Amino acid sequence: MRHGRRPKSKGYGKRFRTIGEAMAWCRRELGVAVSYKKLYYWFRRWGYQKKVPRPMAEKADVQAQEGWKKGGCWQPCRRRG
Fold first, then answer.
1. What pLDDT is stored for residue 46 in this prediction?
2. Is the dihedral of CA 5, 10, 15, 16 positive or negative?
3. Number of structural domains, the chain?
4. 60 in a domain, yes or no?
5. CA-to-CA distance for 31 and 33, rounded, in angstroms?
6. Is 27 helix (H, G, I), strand (E, B) or coil?
7. What are the CA-CA distances from residue 27 to residues 39, 43, 52, 70 (Å)?
8. Could you tell me the residue range of the domain that residue 24 belongs to?
9. What is the pTM of this model?
């Protein structure tokens, strides 16, 4: 990975769900400790993107969130004074 080659070209076709899993794999399989920021940088540079959506809370109101995204919950600010 030091030479800027993609992991797939070196035979590292394993898929990771998180950067933390990739860090642990690098430490375990390659014997190299790589920081979170460095792995994130390389994955972005190689064109990898997140495929797993962020988890949603069980009590989350999906309709309220969609309304917020569409601007339905906006209220004007009041000035103090």
1. 86
2. negative
3. 1
4. no
5. 7
6. helix
7. 12, 17, 23, 44
8. 9-51
9. 0.48
